[in-house]
Specification:
This protein is an alpha/beta fold. The protein is built from eleven helices and ten strands. Helix 4 links the parallel strand 3 and strand 4. Helix 3 packs across helix 4 and helix 10 packs across helix 11.
Length: 319
């Protein structure tokens, strides 16, 4: 039996796609500014080596620019202050995070604000977790710290708390604390983080490099991440997560595809700080193509240092 030939027009073009009107009918834009969220890194001084890094007084202008470009969400990180072994500054009234949340919401009330909930910006040892005198992780103290941070962020106006240390039990603790404080409508978006060299510029800028050791025990091993990410996602959702963030996405697109196939919750793909130089080498057209691919691969939202550049480019091409 002979195969039915594929219809091809006289100039070798599939007739169903040849006409501009038909191509336009099918070719919906892969990427829009609404797919992008931006990291906002609030720092005390002028070390602004990454896009989205700003001192508090520059936050309104930056957030206003993002909102005008159609960016609808940001993730807020701050460089901590008053750091000690207990991360006390993280829950000090009116700390930099609280002021930043209020500033963003005061500037752009509709901007979805996700906040980093973690010890590493606030401990003097730069670790995400608190430790007992003998060096083991103090689970209860860490849960209490993360829970108190999440509630304070919610009180200041945050929409989603993002516990970033991958500590079993912490998502349940944060969810319960938010519920118990009347913030049932505040989301919890934990990390699925692979061990990588692609966190470097962020850790340098925010002072979150552990002073000794590393946090590899709290991250997925890349060689097993295709399977471990699925296990972790199930665990986080069982603990109360309503959305997830995968990072760094550039070296884990396969993991993103697998997560998408298994999970229905919103997935944020985080293009981390170490990807920035590579993205710059691609140029803005390459950035658009890369982020379009992440959306095709299953990301609902892409958290990226390239958000403003891409949104500006998309606005120009929309005309
Ligand atoms: Zn951390």
């Amino acid at each position: 039996m002979s195969q039915r030939p594929v219809p091809v027009g006289p100039d070798g073009v599939n007739p169903g796609r040849a006409r501009q009107a038909v191509r336009s009918l099918y070719a919906h834009p892969v990427l829009t500014a609404a797919d992008l969220t931006a990291p906002l890194l609030v720092v005390p001084d002028g070390q602004l080596c990454l896009p989205g890094a700003a001192t508090l007084d520059h936050v309104p202008a930056l957030v206003d620019r993002w909102a005008r470009l159609g960016i609808r969400g940001l993730k807020l990180f701050v460089r901590g202050h008053g750091r000690d072994a207990h991360g006390s500054g993280a829950t000090a009234p009116g700390n930099r995070m609280i002021r930043a949340i209020r500033t963003v919401k005061g500037t752009a009330p509709d901007m979805a604000v996700t906040t980093e909930v973690c010890g590493c910006s606030w401990t003097d040892h730069g670790q995400c977790v608190l430790r007992t005198a003998d060096g083991t992780i103090d689970l209860d103290a860490t849960y209490r710290l993360m829970s108190a941070m999440a509630v304070q962020h919610a009180e200041a106006g945050a929409d989603v708390a993002s516990p970033t240390a991958m500590l079993d039990g912490s998502i349940h603790a944060v969810r319960a604390a938010l519920d118990g404080s009347g913030f049932r409508d505040v989301g919890v978006n934990p990390n699925i983080a692979l061990h990588t060299g692609l966190y470097g510029p962020f850790k340098e800028l925010m002072g979150t490099n552990p002073q000794c050791g590393h946090r590899r025990g709290l991250q997925l091993e890349p060689g097993r991440a295709d399977r471990d990410a699925l296990i972790q996602a199930r665990r986080w959702i069982a603990e109360g997560a309503d959305s997830l963030t995968l990072q760094p996405v550039m070296t884990a697109v396969d993991v993103l595809v697998r997560l998408r196939a298994e999970q229905q919750v919103p997935l944020t793909a985080y293009s981390t700080s170490g990807e920035w130089d590579a993205l710059c080498a691609l140029g803005v057209e390459g950035m658009v193509e890369y982020h379009s691919m992440l959306k095709r691969a299953g990301a609902d939202v892409i958290l990226t240092f390239a958000a403003e550049k891409i949104a500006a480019r998309l606005e120009v091409s929309r005309g």
